[in-house]
Predict the 3D structure of the following.
Amino acid sequence: MPGHRIFTTAFAKVYPLYVRKAEAKGRTPAEVDQVICWLTGYDEVGLRRQLDVAADFETFFAQAPALHPNTALIKGVVCGVRVEAVDDPLMQQIRWLDKLVDELAKGRAMEKILRG
């Protein structure tokens, strides 16, 4: 069964949308990066490298140094879908990222977004 279209979408195409969504609510690109790095284990250099090579979401998450151990604490609804109920592991990782960016855009405190 072929994967969802988002799997082969370049992360670099979606990244500016994450930033724009956050900036529209007064958050910064650095905060978006912090959330992405928290989730994936990338450092700033690794994140930039993934953006530069236009890695697709599948590659972006496959090459992530280490998903944060608190990802199980990411709960809620994104696009009408409960993130904790998503069966496909890659789709769940993408939904986790969407949820974190949503929380950032909604003004949630960074320590809560990062499940601290």
Observations:
- The first strand starts at residue 77 and ends at 78.
- The chain is about 55% helix and 5% strand.
